[in-house]
Amino acid sequence: MLEFITFGITDLIDILLFALLLYQVYKLLRGTAAIRIFWTIAILFILWKILSAMHLRLVGAILEQIISVGVIALIVVFQPEIRKFLLIIGNARIVKMLKFHKRDTSVSFAPEIDAVVRACRRMSNSKTGALIIFEKETPLDEIIATGEKLDAIVSRELIENIFFKNSPLHDGGLIIKNHRIMAARCILPVSDREDISPDLGLRHRAAIGVTVLTDAVVVVVSEQTGSISLCQGGEITHSISPVVLETQLKDIFMNEKKEEDEKK
């Protein structure tokens, strides 16, 4: 007798959650060399399920063993991607809502934004390369540890001196944390996405890399063209004016502060 397949709400939820997980993994690996391995594994898994449904036990058993043994190898191969995926989950809004400890947003970012914008305006005119990272909810302590700790007041003069071409601190990134310049010459994770324009240098790739892993906001000044870019969530906006930079930074930080105050 034919067996009728029952399809309930739990099956729909199961499929939707699996599709969401698959999409997030694809989004994470998109543009990298690992995407080819991902599709190979997906095809092998689907093939195994089809063979199992057709009761081809011998071939199905072989594929099952390959898949089960390959899990350990996958953990090794995809270790950087797995770490990125976990960090992205940790930075998700729903996870942030569950956090008991909230960063103090009672102090306005206006002075820091003003100092950064004025410094970027002058560095853009002189084509001085710069990489400025604002820490938000995700701690950047590991990145700060790679640079020179400063713990100084955020000022236009200090930012310009740090990124002056003959300064020993001009390479790497400058981290702004708790309304202070915590460190300079910091080493950032560089994105290896293949869909990034070849015209972008290491500063822009580092900006994309750190904003994929964290919720940081990054300002980049190109040394070649002097153009200013703003990066958040792995997406970068090129060639913006200092006025637009100031507006967007205020939208990011000032509006978030206003929302936090309204919730209180």
Key features of this structure:
264 residues; elongated; seven-stranded mixed sheet; YojJ-like (1; alpha+beta; 2 domains; 53% helix
Structural notes for this entry:
This protein is elongated. Helices cover 53% and strands 15% of the residues. A hairpin with a 6-residue loop joins strand 5 and strand 6 (228-232). The protein has 264 residues and is of the alpha+beta class. Strands 2-4-3-1-5-6-7 form a 7-stranded mixed sheet, with helices on both faces.
Q: What does the secondary structure layout of this molecule look like, with pairings?
A:
Elements: H1 9-29, H2 34-53, H3 57-77, H4 79-90, H5 93-97, H6 110-125, E1 130-134, H7 141-144, E2 148-153, H8 156-163, E3 173-177, E4 180-186, H9 202-213, E5 217-221, E6 228-232, E7 235-240, H10 242-263
Parallel strand pairs: 1-3
Antiparallel strand pairs: 1-5, 2-4, 3-4, 5-6, 6-7
Helix pairs in contact: 2-3, 6-8, 6-10
